[in-house]
Amino acid sequence: MENKVFSSLNELQREIPRILEKHGSDQSLAALALANPLLALRQIGYSFTPEAEQDIADHIRFGKANAAKVNELKASLHASTGHVITGDEVPVAAIEKILKQLPEKSKLKKLDAHKVQELFRTRPLLAGTKVNDPLETYAAEHPTVQQLVALRKLQATHAPLGSREGVEKIQKDTNLLKGIRFRLSRKK
């Protein structure tokens, strides 16, 4: 079992050929890696610094360009609210800070607290290629709301990594991905 801590996405990318050479034909690991590559790497003994883990997870979920956009939106939201947004949830304190920034005539500010919490907590729905976000109705009221809607749309169109529970179900079904083998493609 490996015992390496990755501190960056680049460090992991440099190690991938050796990992695939050593573990590329492991069927159970392949199934796990399809659902959540970070869990697969942990299973064989690798670990990550918190910053690297978030960077790698975003890169896997959103791709290079969209991961950069997600990071930019999260940084901007952090700057305007003073709260870090991790995952797909917005902290209650960040919601309260956003509401304080809205102009007095804001329609969003006039809603009762329960309705506002519901708007922020309701995940956008993906209908075909269109994202329906209930918060989008209020996006024009403040740049911070616009940024949050943009972030939520990116999150809605890119599936999160598989949860530990979901991955355990995949691992129990031994016939699910029979015959899959990973290899490194060096196309240029």
Topology readout:
Elements: E1 5-6, H1 9-23, H2 27-35, H3 37-43, E2 47-48, H4 50-81, H5 92-101, H6 107-110, H7 113-121, E3 125-127, E4 130-132, H8 143-156, H9 164-172
Parallel strand pairs: 1-2
Antiparallel strand pairs: 3-4
Helix pairs in contact: 2-3, 2-9, 4-8
Structure commentary:
The strands form two sheets. A two-stranded parallel sheet has the order 1-2. The mean pLDDT is 87. The two termini are 32 Å apart. It is elongated. It has 188 residues and is mainly α. The protein is 58% helix and 5% strand. It has helices spanning 9-23, 27-35, 37-43, 50-81, 92-101, 107-110, 113-121, 143-156, 164-172, and strands at 5-6, 47-48, 125-127, 130-132.
Radius of gyration: 20 Å
- On the 0-100 scale, what is the average pLDDT? 87
Structural class: mainly alpha
- Which sheet architecture does the biggest sheet show? 2 strands, parallel
Low-confidence blocks of residues: none
Q: Categorize the overall geometry.
A: elongated
Q: How much of the sequence is in beta strands? A: 5-15%
How much helical structure, as a percent, in the residues? Answer: 55-70%
How are the strands ordered across the major sheet?
A: 1-2
Helix and strand sequence: EHHHEHHHHEEHH
Given the structure, what is the number of helices? 9
Structure summary, number of beta strands: 4
Ends apart, CA distance between termini: 32 Å
